[in-house]
Amino acid sequence: MSIKTVEAPGGQGSGASLDYFKNNLREYGMLVALVAIILFFAAYSAATGRPTFVSASNLTNLFLQNSYVIIMAIGMLLIIITGHIDLSVGSLVGFVGAVGAVLMVLYDIPVPIAVAMCLVVGAVIGAIQGYFVAFLRIPSFIVTLAGMLVFRGLTFMTLGSSSSISPIPASLRAISTGTIPDVLPVLGLANSTTLILAIVLAVGFALFAVSKRSARSRIGPVAEPQAFFYGRVALVTVAILFMGYLLATNRGLPNVLILMAVLIAIYAFVTSRTTIGRRVYAVGGNEKAAKLSGVKTERIVFLAFVNMGVLAAIAGLVFFARVGSATAKNGTGLELDVIAACFIGGASAYGGVGKVTGAVIGAFIMGALNMGMQTSMQLSIDYQQLVKGLVLLAAVCFDVYNRNKA
Question: Taking the domains of the chain in order of start, what are their residue ranges?
Fold first, then answer.
């Protein structure tokens, strides 16, 4: 039995695909930018004789070094969509890491209980900040700027005279630096299970995408040209297989990547398929109109900050587990990378616009830039900050241009 797909007017040629790409530049432009950045650093490494940029070890490090940024970018996206900002997340990462270190190392509290307590701490902090922003109407910039200073001070107080607390429990460290075991060593690779999972994921993605398009075509015309659709699915499928192969030749699939994938899937579903997700966008798009339509805007903003606190706590534990110790400087400056990831990924500075996948791509762009400038180009920190600042400014200018054009 064949499935017929009803296409939107406009043909199936390259012209229709190009027009569709232009009309959806916010969604696909950053993905193209990520590919371009990777190709640039790969070419630069080859031309200068430096170690190849596209390698198994670099891919693993890209996931490990950006895991906490991606986790927080998901929460920050919801904050930005509602029209607010959170400058305290970097300090909160350091504070939660310090609390976790004290509980697990000094007081020898079991890891699951200590992790639960840290998540509660993050939720309470998010609730306090959310209350000031949502119900007392204090600008989020001021509230979270104060939080950034307060939580950094609390980090110093928590650690006390100790410059750092270590070592961390092996079970917690495995979350951030460990990989899945090779339970199916059949392909002769370092971790064959990883490649098998990548094949299953790639096939599942392709089948789901085709099935979803077919279901939409039964309702009415499909806006996305067929050539563009199959090209997009093919590229994503090949990318999944390629990354799976690289990871399989190294240490395997990082445990933290599984955590990230679960969070991304949950929040992508919540923001696109649930009532509360639609209300988040409504609050950011037009808060007054949302309130008149019955949306409890204060509650939505409050919950967004609570959610941010919980995700920052998770990121704090992941960061603590990765570096292997809790110090007063842990998390310093992370808020800038997190906020930049959201804006680079297509979130609007005016609120009401943004996607979880966009924030994730933005985080990978920041990570690829950091890694490329450090390993391939070996630029000093001043040039790295300059480049990242210009990239962020360009992303916001692009958002303003699109808004004015619309």
Answer: 27-176+273-405, 179-253
Q: Taking the mean position of all CA atoms in its chain, how far away is CA 124?
A: 23
Residue 147's contacts (CB-CB under 8 Å, 6 or more residues apart) are 86, 87, 88, 91, 92, 125, 129
Name every residue whose Cβ is closer than 8 Å to that of residue 267 and which is 6 or more positions away in sequence: 74, 78, 356
Q: Is the pLDDT of residue 238 over 90?
A: yes
Q: Is the pLDDT of residue 1 over 60?
A: no
Distance CA 81, CA 84 (A): 7
Question: The tokens of 394 are what?
Answer: 């360009």
Percentage of residues in the chain with pLDDT exceeding 70?
A: 96
Note the CATH number of domain 27-176+273-405: 1.10.3470
The b/e string for 315-340 (b: 16+ C-beta within 10 A; e otherwise) is bbbbbbbbbebbbbebbeebbbbbbb
**CA distance linking residue 119 with residue 307, whole number of Å:** 10
Q: What is the pTM of this model?
A: 0.90
What does the CA dihedral 58, 60, 61, 62 come to, rounded to 10 degrees? 80
